[in-house]
Amino acid sequence: MSELAQSALNGAQAHAAVTIRELGLQGMITLRADLSDKKLATALKALTGLAVPAPRCIEVAGEGAISVAWMSPDELLILCPHADAPKLEADLAAKLKTIHHLAVNLSDARAIFAIEGQGAREVLAKLTPADLHPETLQAGELRRSRLAQVAAAFWIEGEDSIRLICFRSVAQYVFDLLAMSAKEGGEVGYF
User: Fold this and answer.
1) According to DSSP H, which parts of the chain are helical?
2) Whether residues 55 and 127 fall in one domain
3) Measured in Å, how far apart are the chain's first and last C-alpha atoms?
């Protein structure tokens, strides 16, 4: 990994009705395998301390240093400190060598954002077809959807805190969308 690694937007921030922040470098490993395989569950628990998440959920350890997100019936996304990703990827490959899998470090291919403050759901709801009502999408749940014209995944961290992942190549577009949606006076009072 390059010592010159930098996040997509160098920690860009927008402050309006809510705060939008690009969170900087984030380790991300995609893991494709049979999620019902007990060897996978054992290896994941040993390396991350977390279980395989239920469909459309994310498991978070402690202060969020490591998380495991369900992305599809055969895919997990492991979030970890950026510097730890290469070792975690190698450790996964070693522990899972007897089962069919694919573990790839995607850290530098994605960007991650925080949407924080009262009205965070509303800001995101203006941009995605996903149902963000608190009864439908609760803390610890994850959705893969669209954000205007691009793919994104997001989850509710807390009452007024959402995390969003997109491709690095569209990070500026996503940031601009979120910042526009968060502008004062654009509140619609849906949630």
Assistant:
1) 38-48, 85-95, 120-125, 171-181
2) no
3) 42
CA distance 147 to 170: 11
Angle in degrees, CA 26, 32, 37, rounded to 5:
120
What pTM was estimated for this model as a whole? 0.92
81, 108, 135 - which closes a domain: 108
Domain region containing 113: 13-24+109-181
- Residue-wise pLDDT for 39-62, tens only, equals 999 999 999 999 999 999 999 987
Max Cα–Cα distance, the chain, nearest Å: 56
What lies within 8 Å, CB to CB, of 161 at 6+ separation is 114, 115, 116, 120
Phi, psi (rounded to 5 degrees) for 48: -115, -20
CATH number of domain containing 65: 3.30.70.1520
CA 141, 112, 124, 62 torsion: positive or negative? positive
Closest CA to 191 of 144, 116, 123: 123
Residue whose entry in the numeric block shows the structure tokens 């994104």: 152
Question: How many structural domains comprise the chain?
Answer: 2
